[in-house]
């Protein structure tokens, strides 16, 4: 059957591409975690930036791992995948770590905004002084929000599986259908709200930071300051702008997955999954090259491999 061949070809292509991106992203984020943990053992302490990067690298590694396992079981072992509670647990962990990734990356952008930006507002100055103490609470709040989203998705998958089995009575079919649709709507609304909240935090932080850097660059131009400092600010603005563009596309792709979740496989879902699997690895690679400690460790490893 041509349709069956197309579905099989689609599934094989998707699995191959996402597997390559997932393993590359896991390697990159595992590198970040290892370097920061080695530094933690040596110095016996971590600064606020390193705490966020450590948790971000760990959540992205686990997110890619569980998302790939979930995708692999769906394509290769669909019968075993729907055995209770394998499907529910895999979906729970995949959602928990995905939301941890989104929330912690938003915390990182907020942290950079407060640390780097220069505004004379009293509240902003207060945040700049207290941000290091607030970081553990921000990370704890991110974990609690991710846990709540994971529980919601676990309940949603449990309801879907139970209703697929118990939809046998024709007399109560429409009543059950309406109740199920309402349940799905509330769950997907909360998912979309979580995506939108993290995106808005990143958007406003990046815009404030870009405005501050742009204003500082103009001040340096008028005062005829050194070109090296100006180049550093321009490089920082380009980095933040690239992250904002990547995160915006990521938010759009996550929103698309909600609308296409109940529909058949098509080109849109293929492109969406390709980008969603690529984003954690690509952005983590940008973080490595923007952090002198991580960049130095990566260059050292690559030089050793090249010598061997």
TrEMBL record:
Cross-referenced Gene3D superfamilies: Rhodopsin 7-helix transmembrane proteins
Subcellular localization: Membrane
Membrane topology qualifier: Multi-pass membrane protein
Keywords from the named record: G-protein coupled receptor, Membrane, Receptor, Sensory transduction, Taste, Transducer, Transmembrane, Transmembrane helix
Principal place of residence: membrane
Matching InterPro entries: TAS2R
SUPFAM superfamilies: Family A G protein-coupled receptor-like
A GO MF label: G protein-coupled receptor activity
GO CC terms, sorted: membrane
Family: Belongs to the G-protein coupled receptor T2R family.
Designated name of the protein: Taste receptor type 2
Species for this entry: Zosterops hypoxanthus
Lineage of source species: Eukaryota, Metazoa, Chordata, Craniata, Vertebrata
Gene name of this polypeptide: Tas2r9_1
């Amino acid at each position: 059957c041509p349709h069956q061949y197309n579905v099989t070809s689609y599934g094989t292509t998707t699995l191959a591409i996402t597997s390559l991106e997932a393993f590359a992203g896991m390697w990159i984020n595992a590198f970040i975690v290892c370097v920061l943990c080695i530094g933690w053992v040596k110095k016996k302490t971590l600064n606020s930036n390193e705490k966020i990067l450590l948790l971000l690298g760990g959540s992205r590694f686990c997110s890619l791992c569980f998302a790939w396992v979930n995708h692999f079981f769906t394509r290769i072992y669909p019968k075993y995948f729907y055995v209770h509670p394998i499907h529910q647990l895999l979906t729970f962990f995949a959602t928990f770590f995905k939301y941890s990734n989104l929330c912690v990356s938003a915390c990182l952008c907020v942290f950079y905004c407060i640390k780097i930006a220069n505004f004379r507002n009293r509240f902003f100055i207060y945040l700049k002084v207290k941000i290091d103490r607030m970081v553990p609470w921000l990370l704890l709040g991110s974990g609690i929000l991710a846990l709540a989203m994971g529980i919601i998705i676990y309940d949603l998958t449990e309801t879907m599986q139970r209703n697929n089995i118990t939809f046998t009575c024709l007399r109560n079919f429409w009543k059950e259908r309406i109740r199920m649709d309402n349940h799905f709507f509330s769950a997907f609304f909360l998912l979309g709200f979580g995506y939108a909240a993290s995106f808005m935090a990143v958007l406003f932080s990046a815009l404030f930071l870009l405005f501050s850097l742009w204003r500082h660059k103009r001040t340096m131009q008028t005062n005829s300051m050194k070109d090296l400092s100006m180049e550093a600010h321009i490089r920082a603005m380009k980095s933040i702008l690239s992250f904002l563009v990547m995160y915006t596309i990521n938010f759009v792709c996550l929103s698309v997955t909600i609308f296409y979740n109940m529909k058949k496989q098509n080109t849109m879902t293929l492109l969406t999954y390709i980008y969603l699997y690529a984003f954690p690895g690509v952005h983590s690679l940008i973080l490595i090259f923007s952090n002198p400690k991580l960049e130095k460790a990566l260059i050292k490893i690559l030089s050793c491999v090249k010598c061997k």
